[in-house]
Amino acid sequence: MYMSFVPAARLAVLSTRGVVVRMQSGLGTPGSGAGKSGGSGGSIRDAGGAFGKLEAAREEEYFYKLQKAQLKGLKDQIKREIEHHEGQMKNHQEVLERHKKRISELEKEENGIANLSIRRLQVASRRMYELVDIGANLGHPSYKKDLDDVIERSKQAGISKLMITGTCEKISKEAAKMAEKHAGYLYFTAGVHPHDAKDWVIETEGIMRELLSSPQCVAVGECGLDYNRNFSPQDVQRDVFEKQLDIACELGRPLFIHEREAHEDMVRLLSERSEKLPSAVIHCFTGTVEEAEKYLSMGLYIGLTGFLWKDKSDNGVQAGLKSGKIPIERLVLETDAPFMYPKVNDKKLPVEVRESISEHAKTMHKFASFNRNEPCALPAICEMIAAFSGRKPEDMPLTLVEPAAAGLRNALRLMTEYGVFKLGEFTLKSGQRSPIYIDLRESFGHPDLMRVMCESMQELIEKVEKTKPYKGIVGVPYAALPYASIISQYTSQPLLIIRKEAKSYGTKKLIEGSYSEGQRVIVVEDVVTTGQSLKDVITTLRKDGLVVEDVFCILDRDQGGPKNLEELGVNLHSLLNMEKVLAFLSAVGRLSLDQFNDIVNALNLPYKELKKIDVKWEMEETHTNGNANGDNKENSKIRVRLSLQQREKLATCPVSKRLFSLMHTKATNLCLAIDYEEGERILELADKAGPFVCAVKVHADTIDEFNESWTSKLVALANKHDFLIFEDRKFADTGNTLSMQVKRNAASWADIVTVYGIAGEKSIRSAFQPIIADPSTRLKGILLIAQLSCEGNLCDTEYTNGTRRIAEANQDIVCGFITQEKISDKLGLIHWTPGVSLDETTDGKGQQWRSVEKAIMEQQNDIVIVGRAICNKTTPASELRRYRDAAWEALSAAMPKH
Ligand code: 6AU
Hints:
globular, TIM Barrel, alpha/beta, orotate phosphoribosyltransferase activity, exonuclease activity
């Protein structure tokens, strides 16, 4: 490259290899008088002999020197060029390094700002309610760089669950990964959008089913019809949509539907399946009021997005909300981010709508733009919808808060989760016996709970103190100090601390902080029982000239606090009282009626009725075997459970969903084990038992006339009476053998089979998952044998726990367990228990029987499997009723009554 810097004159004497070329004419030697010789080189050469040789040597020397000088010049020149370029490179390198450093500094700064803004938001922006975003396209490339920030902001906005939309195989898979990473917050849908319908291939269905088996997968979709853009041919769209519809109907999974300008076809395809259609939402609805009404009349939900701001047509979504024809009770909210930006500040929106948007929603909305909408804009969408409907945002379905007290539900949920409420036998400071202990100090270990409580307190204070100016927040030592400190930050009010005893040195003051006489302060306390200790605090404050009229506490135990303080002219405002706590614990299945009564009596509480609060089913996650029940395990026979309908929603195995539903509908949790050898006799009793049972269990390999005709008769009876057919084959082998055995022996006629966990997860899953997923087989779930009823059996704890783990990790195919006692907290799994008799305790062959009450109430099983205690009696029909009633009564006693 540097050759280009060599002057042209030099090149004249260079060959391509850089060698000097001798000129044949007009070239004399230096000092030889060549000029005078008249330009004829011939005379010198002609001299011949020694002189000629000398001349030649001189000439050679001359050319040698010339060549050398030229090469040296050239080399020097190139060296200079190198030096020049090296210098330049060094400069460039330095500039490059400087730029790189600056970029990394800027990036750090950028992250810092993002974090700071998130932190600032945590302090400045309080959410008033929680929301679920049922559709955000987080797999969109625009989120690639800052997905974590986007998710963090969505939480900040008050979104408690977020569903990522899967629009094709690839994006659905990516969504599954994201949901796995943020389990419990992110969920996803698996489906193929009408735009991508043309890409559906034979393998797609299997992949969709696999994705749908994930516990985080909440719906089939986004699927549907789009005759507006027609990116896939319409007939292909219909075909692919129908495939997905059928999967959803078969699995009973919700549908997330896209429809544009294809209303009639959509209605037709859905109506054709109206019998089996699961719950479905027309996502991002942009159609007319009439179309919405039609969908609503079919039982569908309407998904609304930020699109609402621009639809000003006479019969569009704005009009539908205003007229109430699209009622908010049937809406679900979604951002459809990064699309459908809600321009809630648009001048053309009605003033009352613009003005209804809260500060919180506006703050979060700022992070979204036309270029890229974000889930954190959902509160703005929610409030815009509420304003058009003339309703409050917290009235919106899936806003998960009790209307009366924003943030409270969240606080209660976290308190339950973190073991603040302990049930058992306790003695209070006063010496009083108490079956409940509320340990608010547990909250200090959980910043999220502290924040929620302090936010709610701030809100309460602002509401009460709106008209009465105060200056200063007094924290009562010690437990209330952390709350008071945080609230003082939130409210920008000075903090005062009251000491337990005066210092013996220095100021000897009892009140720390800066204040002056006549100043009105508020007092913050954690728990108030009778209010006695607060009385002392108030007296101390008043002695120093401070004005105290209002005390705020987290929990009033309903034991006379407000009345006692009233005597001092002080109002007690509480975030929670005992009644609310008990109502909540009962609503989420943590407290039985007996426990409630016990608490009321022991604490002499002023109410006798358990208050009912409507806690949405999303709350069920709090219903685990946590502290609230754990401490009391030995004392109570009844364990509180969720209702069967609630559990149906949590179940993922298809047969479990069906079972929960039929148990509820038929009011039975009895499974009859018909262990006769004569096939006809089994059918006869199954027909009689049909109305009383949720399942009929057989051992196919013990039946005389076992053949296809027999199984089809049993299937007909199962269909007639709506019970499950349970083949108790107790499979246990390697995956391949298992698969062959099941296909040949049970898959076509039984709904459910028993399997030992002994072969391990891989064998079990590989054999059963494809069979269960195959729509042409009847088999739709398995029961893992975790414990046996017979004396001296070898199912030890290690085996039972291993089996439990397999079940919990494969809830899409495992219905539950054959067990003696409840072994898993997963509420979608069902505990079936054999070894039950109301009259005898053993058969003398190792079988051990116990009562229905023990099996259901104490050992917390769900279904009793009863065999000979019914079948071997002379009047099985009356025994059926007896066992059905006993089992159902025991189960119902533990389920919520409302
Ligand atoms: O009430 P029984 O004793 O007449 O019948 C109980 C039924 C029988 C057993 O094969 C079966 O339940 N069984 C099982 C199952 C269902 O797998 C496990 C067990 O531990 N004990 C038990 O009896 O058909």
